[in-house]
Amino acid sequence: GDQMTRRVVVTGMGAITPLGHNVRDTWEGLSAGKSGTGPITLFDATGGDARVAGEVKEFDPAHYMDRKDARRSDRFTQFAVAAARMAEADSGLDVSRAPERMGASIATAQGGVASLAECCAGAPSGRIMPTLVTAFMPNMGAGWVSIELGLRGPVTAPCTACVECRSCATCRAPVAPDRTHAARPMPKSAPETSKWDMPRQAC
Predict the structure, then answer these.
(1) Which residues lie closer than 8 Å to 157 by C-beta, 6 or more apart?
(2) Among the listed ranges 102-106, 182-186, 197-201, which one has the minimum average pLDDT value?
(3) Digit-coded pLDDT (tens) for 102-144
(4) CA–CA dist 28, 4 (Å, integer)
(5) Closest of 21, 49, 50, 28 to residue 37, by C-alpha
């Protein structure tokens, strides 16, 4: 119906990726065929089946949100706020003129994985920070963007695994005619150690 044929306009863009902290650097990296993958540094991956990933390096959320708020939010939320602020600036829109006409819809495959892992680690001792529970919720990205930008329109957070990010390197699979992902079996064993020393060839 009208929902499927309605045209939209991209007025602004923002990006926080392993290739750069803005659209220009990310696009230049992609165009040059650069890889954003490398050895995992955000946690100890020793002994794990996977030891390479596409990590965002040298990211400081304080450039985009209050430090106190940043401490209460997961890294995926910080990325969302940063990219949203860039898109707002790029668009030239004045949100304050009509905040009720602007909302936030941010898809995520899983939400705040780091905060969830921290919750699980603290569960045996019963020491879990209340803010961690809200930090890993999938809708926190859209929620914080709405708060930070002063949006008063609808807030949604589609969460249907990798259907939300069809180019995800870790779960790429052919898209079936009904637009759902065809399943791809996980490897029974990790590649030989030599490949983990060469991230570009390992992925």
Answers:
(1) 105, 106, 107, 108, 138, 139, 141, 142, 143
(2) 182-186
(3) 999 999 888 888 888 888 887 777 777 778 778 889 999 999 9
(4) 32
(5) 50
**95: closest CA among 22, 16, 9, 12?**
12
CB 182 within 8 A of CB 126: no
| Tens digit of each residue's pLDDT (9 = 90 or more) over 13-42 | 999 999 999 999 999 999 999 999 999 998
Residue linked to tokens 């780091």: 114
* Pure H helices in the chain: 2-5, 23-31, 67-72, 75-91, 113-122, 130-135, 140-149, 193-196, 199-202
